[in-house]
């Protein structure tokens, strides 16, 4: 989201409208959209001030109230996986929510349990496939093409 317009620019835009200039002319003069001019006039009318809204907008982080319990559980058992942590503490949200919260707090955990590594998928040996003769399939060549 872009930063709010400076107070200086806001006051100059509204002052130009108060002086009798049309919102379209003011928008062109100050290199803003006409919609921005109308919004500034509405903000002044509704709030009596041109100050931008303060604070963080958007939803409250889901796991903020569980932060202390999460950090304490990690200190006790640093090798805990995200899934184990989520089920032990009965946390709301999915694993991605927990991962994002930990990342925001500067904490990293292992992704999976220690143990057997997964091997890359292998293709079956062509000779072991039923009905395979071991030779490449014959492809018909277009007429007039020789080898």
Topology record:
Blueprint: H1 7-18, H2 23-29, H3 34-47, H4 67-76, H5 82-89, H6 95-104
Helix amount, in percent? 40-55%
Q: Could you state the order of secondary-structure elements as H and E?
A: HHHHHH
Structural class: mainly alpha
Q: How many DSSP helices?
A: 6
**How much of the residues is beta strand, in percent?**
under 5%
- Please give the number of β-strands: 0
Radius of gyration: 32 Å
Sheet with the most strands, sense and barrel status: none
**Overall outline:** flat
Low-confidence parts: none
In whole angstroms, the N-to-C terminal distance is: 63 Å
Rounded average pLDDT: 82
Tag the structure with descriptive keywords.
single chain, 147 residues, mainly alpha, 6 helices, flat
Characterization of this structure:
This protein is 41% helix and 0% strand. It has six helices and no strands. Helix 2 packs across helix 3. The longest helix has 14 residues. The radius of gyration is 32 Å and the shape is flat.
Brief synopsis:
It contains six helices and no strands.
């Amino acid at each position: 989201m872009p930063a709010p317009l400076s107070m200086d620019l806001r006051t100059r835009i509204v002052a130009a409208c108060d002086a009798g200039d049309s919102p379209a002319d003011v928008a062109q003069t100050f290199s803003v959209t006409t919609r921005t001019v109308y919004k500034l006039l509405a903000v002044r009318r509704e709030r009596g001030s041109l100050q931008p809204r303060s604070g963080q907008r958007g939803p409250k982080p889901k796991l903020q109230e569980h932060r202390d319990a999460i950090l304490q559980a990690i200190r006790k058992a640093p090798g805990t996986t995200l899934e184990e942590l989520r089920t032990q503490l009965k946390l709301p949200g999915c694993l991605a929510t927990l991962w994002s919260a930990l990342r925001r707090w500067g904490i990293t955990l292992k992704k999976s349990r220690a143990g057997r590594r997964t091997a890359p998928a292998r293709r079956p040996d062509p000779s072991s496939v039923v009905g395979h003769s071991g030779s490449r399939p014959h492809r018909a060549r277009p007429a007039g093409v020789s080898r």
